[in-house]
């Protein structure tokens, strides 16, 4: 029983299981082709059956309890029973693992890096695929869980980790562009350096004279003042990035946060060194992000924040913001 199986990760898991002749319920909303998101529950069913499985397409919006119940009833009627491959994720795992112990195994699976899907293209823009892995890695990881006994339950699993246990060592086969640095998954609390691979030698950038900042006042300046007071050699060493902010609205303009050079620096105007990441947003959203009232990931997904440059380094800044929230 796979929600979101009409495309992307859900469909990849379904096709992997279909090769073993699995019975698969495709629970998704799309019944007519979307202009930007290919695939429907019916086209997915055709692919699943062509791969050797049996498919039951069901129209399901997971926010609608009645649609979920109807799909479960149809699944039991057609196939006799079902297991959950992708539904609800971690919020359900612990309770359901205990409730169904000995009957159904319940585990959560999460990617270590960004996965290339149609949704990722829409959010990340042109070229983001080169920083992603293919959906195949999730399908293979899910399949390795399917093969385990029912006693393997209540686990929170990272795709790369379980595949390493299966003996896989070469993960470049899963990369859209082998050898290219990868974006760590947005929701994993891991240091991105464990994921990124250095593909180019470090280039020394000659420092250019820093222009005298204009006098500033207001919430943005106060935010940067607090950030500056929070800087340390450890933060600079761990981050290694220069951020430029293009802010619109009152107290806006160009600002920078240098977490790569010397002891770090902040201020108005362009940075002395080339920016690794340029973020554009309103001054209100900037202050909300640094004070913890607006998640950068949500701002990015909703279009309130645009990012140019290294996405992995942008994610590092989000983790730094979380550490500073108590002071802002």
Characterise the protein shown here.
The protein has 12 helices and 10 strands. Strand 7 and strand 8 form a beta hairpin. With 328 residues, it is of the alpha/beta class. The protein starts with a strand and ends with a helix. Belongs to the short-chain dehydrogenases/reductases (SDR) family. Keywords: Mitochondrion, NADP, Oxidoreductase, Peroxisome.
In short:
The protein is of the alpha/beta class and 328 residues long. 36% of the residues lie in helices and 15% in strands. It is elongated.
Show the helix and strand layout.
Layout (H helix, E strand, L loop, with lengths): L1 E2 L4 H11 L4 E6 L12 H10 L3 E6 L5 H15 L10 H10 L8 E3 L7 H7 L11 H11 L9 E3 H7 L53 H12 L2 H7 L1 E8 L4 E7 L5 E4 L8 E6 H8 L5 H6 L4 E4 L1 H14 L4
Parallel strand pairs: 1-2, 2-3, 4-5, 6-9
Antiparallel strand pairs: 6-7, 7-8, 9-10
Helix pairs in contact: 1-2, 1-6, 6-7
Function: Has apparently no steroid dehydrogenase activity. Controls bile acid (BA) and lipid metabolism in response to nutritional cues.
Main location: mitochondrion
Organism: Galeopterus variegatus
Overall outline? elongated
What is the average per-residue confidence, as pLDDT, rounded to a whole number?
A: 83
Instruction: Bin the strand percentage.
Output: 5-15%
**Fraction of residues in helices?**
25-40%
Stretches with pLDDT under 50, minimum 5 residues: 191-217
- Our measurement of the CA-to-CA distance between the termini, rounded to an integer number of angstroms, reads 44 Å
Can you list the strand order of the major beta sheet?
8-7-6-9-10
Please count the helical segments.
12
Number of strands: 10
Supply the helix-strand structural class. Answer: alpha/beta
Function: Has apparently no steroid dehydrogenase activity. Controls bile acid (BA) and lipid metabolism in response to nutritional cues.
Subcellular location: Mitochondrion; Peroxisome
Protein name: Hydroxysteroid dehydrogenase-like protein 2
Family: Belongs to the short-chain dehydrogenases/reductases (SDR) family.
């Amino acid at each position: 029983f796979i929600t979101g199986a009409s495309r992307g990760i859900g469909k990849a898991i379904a096709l992997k299981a279909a090769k073993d002749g699995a019975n698969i319920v495709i629970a998704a909303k799309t019944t007519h082709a979307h202009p930007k998101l290919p695939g429907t529950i019916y086209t997915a069913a055709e692919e699943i059956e062509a791969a050797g499985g049996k498919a039951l397409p069901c129209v399901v919006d997971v926010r609608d309890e009645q649609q979920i119940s109807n799909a479960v009833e149809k699944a039991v009627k057609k196939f006799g029973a079902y297991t959950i491959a992708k539904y609800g994720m971690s919020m359900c795992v612990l309770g359901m693992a205990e409730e169904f112990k000995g009957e159904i195994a319940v585990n959560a699976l999460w990617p270590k890096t960004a996965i290339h899907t149609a949704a990722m293209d829409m959010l990340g823009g042109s070229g983001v695929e080169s920083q992603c892995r293919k959906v195949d890695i999730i399908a293979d990881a899910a399949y390795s869980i399917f093969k385990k006994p029912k006693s393997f339950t209540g686990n929170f699993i990272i795709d790369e980790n379980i595949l390493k246990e299966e003996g896989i060592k070469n993960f470049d086969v899963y990369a859209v562009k082998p050898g290219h640095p990868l974006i760590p998954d947005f929701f994993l609390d891991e240091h991105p350096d464990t994921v990124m691979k250095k593909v180019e030698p470090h280039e020394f950038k000659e420092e250019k004279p820093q222009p005298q900042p204009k006098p500033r006042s207001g919430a943005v300046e106060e935010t940067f003042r607090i950030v500056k007071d929070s800087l340390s050699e450890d933060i600079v060493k761990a981050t290694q990035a220069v951020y430029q902010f293009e802010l619109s609205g009152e107290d806006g303009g160009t600002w920078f946060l240098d977490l790569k050079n010397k002891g770090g620096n902040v201020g108005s105007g362009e940075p002395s060194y080339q920016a690794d990441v340029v973020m554009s947003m309103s001054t209100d959203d900037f202050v909300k992000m640094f004070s913890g009232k607006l998640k950068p990931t949500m701002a990015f997904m909703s279009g309130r924040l645009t990012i140019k440059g290294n996405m992995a380094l942008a994610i590092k800044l989000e983790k730094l913001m979380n550490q500073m929230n108590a002071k802002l």
